[in-house]
What we know:
3 helices; rod-shaped
Amino acid sequence: xxxTHPTPRTAHRLLGLAAAVAMxxxxxxxxxxxxxxxxxxxxxxxxxxxxxxxxAQRKMEVAANDAGAATRDAAAKAAAVMDDAGIxxxxxxxxxxxxxxxxxxxxxxxxxxxxxLNGPVKTSEARSRAAQxxxxxxxxxxVVNQLxxxxx
Length: 152
């Protein structure tokens, strides 16, 4: 019987085959047993994704509600400022139409529907008439009459 030595090419193939078998055995030994099927794992991943999406939607709804409330507050404040400006304009126009008050510089300030009148007038009647004119304007809640009677 003659004994032949493997050629380098055959030895290389045997070495590659041995490495592949060793790797396969190693992977088989390391593989954990997973009781979940692929479908179950997919269902679990879908459920987790849906939960994350639902949580994100709730957070977005809360943020939107907060933003909506802030917007409503800002709009209400802007409307109040516009109302106050409109009241001031109407009171000033009413005072300018009154003969006893038209040549007098009366400062009209309005905040939250409360009109404050400042400046000099010639008579107590003119002072009272200015307060009446201010009170007659729509949207006026009250009048603070700080007009002073001046002889000049």
